[in-house]
Amino acid sequence: MEQKKMASSDKPRKYLAPLDRKRLEVRLHEITQKYFGEATFDDVEMRYLSGLASNPFLLLADFYHEPTIHKIMNPELHSTVDFLQRIWKEKRRNEDPSVSWLRRVRAFPEEVRLVGDKCLYDVGLFGKQAHGSYDLKNLGVASYHRASEILDGLSQDPRLCEFFLNNRVDVRRIQEEILFLRQCAEKFPDYAQVLAHLHLFGEGPSKEAWETFDDLTTTDDSGHDDTMPANTTPLEDSTPSSPAHAPLQDLPEPAAPASLPELTPAEAMQEARDPETAKLSHQELLSFYERLLLFSNLNITALREDLKNLVIDQQEAIDTVCDDFSLFATGTHSRRKPLSYFFIGPTGVGKNLLIERLVETLEGLWGLEVPLLLIEGPSYTYPSDINELRGSTRGFIRSDEEGLLTEFHHRASAAPFSVILVDEVEKAHAQLRKYFLSIMDRGTTIDNRGQELNFSSTLLVYTSNLGYSDLQMSSDPIGFGDKDARANYERCALMGDLKKELSPEFINRTRILHFNSLSLRSIQKIFELEMEKIAARYRRVHGLELSVSSEARKALITEGFSHEYGARHLARVLNQVCNVGVSKKLRQDSVRGSQDQESRGLLAYIQEARKEERITDLDMLHRKVMERTRAKVGYMQVNVDYANGKYHYITA
């Protein structure tokens, strides 16, 4: 008898050991990478599945109650509206504290969701396919769908919305849980497969299965489970047929038999945040993460070169902006304080152009919209004009309408990066500059409805040519013969003008970037860029090659070069000679009859489409309109020449 006892005591013993959630999550990641690929599941799903696999209630309790299953499989008989009506009647009869009432409201969708969790647990870990007459896969999918529908109905009920608002309930968390439940329904088969690959259960735990349990439980150096209660009973190493012999977590408190799994979907969606992002809204946080990824993958060196090819001879300004973008790429910039620049330079040197080309380039690289708001300083010359930005004060005309910044905020908050450009800021009333102080300091401002607008992901740019008109009119000062000395003198003079016209609070919150005056060499480079734009339009619309002779090029540059107006004067000259003049030539030479039937049909088509009276095929419309408007001439090239003080158009 003694020998029998000794033999029995020599057998290895197993305990009801709690699973280590962290190790279990690592194991699930390994399974998904091996069988499904890295991008199939995210960390939120892994945390939820590890919480579900280690939840003792799903192992011990029976959630397959017939009344609950009947509600799930027959939603038309148990609508959310009827449920809400019953809840509101109970609340009127019994005015319990709001927290208890809210728990009662939440109990219904949680009861349904737990059925889905139980189905996923049984199908994935045990390979169980049915419960009575119910297919567990279908029941699980239906449970998650039904729970999401119930929560969606609750979140849209006006009385509950008012309750949420008054009690500061985070409705966003409910919306996230709705999305997660829908995801659980869609990916139920995949989740079940992932859990099945854990091989925790089956016909009975094999030696390999017990080794898996050892890997997923926590033991101290002595080999004993460090979380094992002192009075835990060891199990013989037989072949148990009951799933109760699986490793278990610590049980929740007995007072909460209907407790949720350790990690709910809403809890799983909560990310750890650093102090600077803790106050960001959900949408703003997503924009921050998206911006960090986009800039980290951005080739800033290539962006720098592209901008220098598009904006001529403004290397200092371009280098500064691109260098600061490195902060976005590394995630080390201030989360709350936007970048603020003050572009100062003569008119027509590329201050606005730099921002426009920057936005266009980033949109092309990212395939996303970069919202741009242009504010014209001369349009805000009175203190009351600021109401156009923030919205009119209550009691005044149009106080029910959103301000310009509120409308822009809707676009900017949904984008990873945006730009506000205030042109000729010195010509605006001082109230406009004061309004932007809080945005430059904290990244936020308040509109007419008391709503906080966050522009922390927005690039603020102010432009001015303050003082440059006087410098352009003045001659070189005595004693400043070299170029560097002249530049230093100009900058000192300009800073003096700035301090006279603008407040130090505004100047000190911006980074001042000086734009250079354009030289003749700069104008020659700009000529090539502007000429190519015009030639590209003729190539695309009319299939014609447009060129300029060397004599015409010299005449256009001479006529277009202006210290006072910069590149704008050159653009006007080029447009008049090479665009308007060539268009007149094409109209004179085109073989064009009266408006035919096809043109009238196209006009009728466009008018009906504008009234939304028909479906519009824009590709077809573009093709036919271009065919009708293309110049019908007998040549393929137009060369602009200059002789005897006149421009001539030579065709070939």
What does this structure look like?
With 652 residues, this protein is of the alpha/beta class. The protein folds into 4 domains: 17-219 and 262-268, no CATH class; 282-466 and 502-514, P-loop containing nucleotide triphosphate hydrolases (Rossmann fold); 520-590 and 631-651, Helicase, Ruva Protein, domain 3; 593-620, no CATH class. The chain has 29 helices and 14 strands. Helix 15 (300-310) runs antiparallel to helix 16 (315-330) and helix 26 (550-560) crosses helix 27 (567-589).
- The CA-CA distance between the termini, in Å, is 117 Å
Oligomer: single chain
Q: In which order are the strands of the major sheet placed?
A: 6-7-10-5-11
Radius of gyration: 36 Å
Give the overall average pLDDT. 77
Largest sheet: 5 strands, parallel
Strand content: 5-15%
Q: Can you count the helices?
A: 29
As a percent range, the share of helical residues equals 40-55%
* DSSP strand tally: 14
Count of individual domains: 4
Uncertain parts: 4-9, 11-17, 202-214, 217-273
Which key phrases capture this entry?
4 domains; Helicase, Ruva Protein, domain 3; extended; 5-stranded parallel sheet; Rossmann fold; 29 helices; 3-stranded mixed sheet; alpha/beta; 652 residues
Summarize the structure.
The protein is an alpha/beta fold. It has four domains: 17-219 and 262-268, no CATH class; 282-466 and 502-514, Rossmann fold, CATH 3.40.50.300; 520-590 and 631-651, Helicase, Ruva Protein, domain 3 (Orthogonal Bundle), CATH 1.10.8; 593-620, no CATH class.
